[in-house]
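Please produce the structure of this protein holding NAP.
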Amino acid sequence: MNTEKMEYIDIEGLPLKVSKIALGTWAIGGWMWGGADDDESVRTIRAALDGGINLIDTAPVYGFGRAEEIVGRALAGGRRRHTIIATKAGMEWRDGRVFRNSSPERLRRELEESLRRLGTDFIDIYQVHWPDEKTPIEETAAAMEGFRHEGKVRIIGVSNYAPAQMDRFMTASTLRTVQPPYNLFERQIESELLTYASGKNLTVLAYGSLCRGLLSGGMDEGRVFTGDDIRKFDPKFKQPRFAQYLAAVRKLDDMARRRFGRGVLALAVRWLIDRENVIALWGARRPDQLAPIGDVIGWSIDDDALKEIDRILDETVTDPVGPEFMSPPGRDI
Ligand code: NAP
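Below is the modeled complex.
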């Protein structure tokens, strides 16, 4: 593990310091990303660990068990004890359709299945994937807290929860992390959740750090998405917006190279981890995609550059759209 090229923080309740960059494994599950190559996925997870990343974020629904199995495979043979596994519960799937279900019975079943797939006795960070309006939040929270008392879970997190929902959750459970969408193009959490998280000492696991590849710098208008790739339905990838976002990426890339000698990907991830309590979830499916890790570490974005970033975004993305299209349906379908 190349720990010299990584920054780490403490999260109360975890025995290891946690890397400020985490590997996201949604694409590794294949589902909604046009498929995946399992051997390549294992190599990607191991490349992340070699690059100093020690937090792997996954979920049962990513490939309907496949991503968790790949994580288990990649960590077998001694890597598990140096790794923080974050997985989730509360998404049910039937006939290829997914919907929310955070009932205590569903969570119990998912916990046992996740432990088996991941090949482990405990989950480090166990997160409720989406709020489920059909289950009182306190019941979900109490079930999660029960798992922690059993020793099957080290700490508890939620994802896609609003502050008021977290207030309710915390009446029945400890809470240490929250996982919202957050990247240079999707900044909705700045209005409330970020401040809330700081006030409650919650670590923010920011998902979609690269805005599903847009902020990698490797995307262009000719890119063709195949199969069930989510970017076929993502409104940011539809013209005329796609051109606006790509133009912003080009300007950000120029600016990052001029000011910092680094590309837009490094700027996008650095912009997230410059915040003390934010960890960037970086989705990758090939080892070479993680090569820029070193460019992200060991510097900061100054105030003047932050202002230039905002100016570029305001001037270039005149018709912005959020990540709401990703919200899955409730239970009554
Ligand atoms: P992301 O990190 O914004 O983008 C990931 C995609 O960017 C990769 O699959 C890859 O796609 C492309 N990419 C990555 N590195 C690259 C590089 N160096 N050069 C060019 N392209 C590169 O999106 P995400 O995976 O959706 O989000 C990160 C993680 O957050 C997920 O994996 C998951 O763990 C978590 N997440 C959670 C939720 C939730 O509801 N809690 C929702 C979404 C995501 P291509 O190879 O296809 O180009």
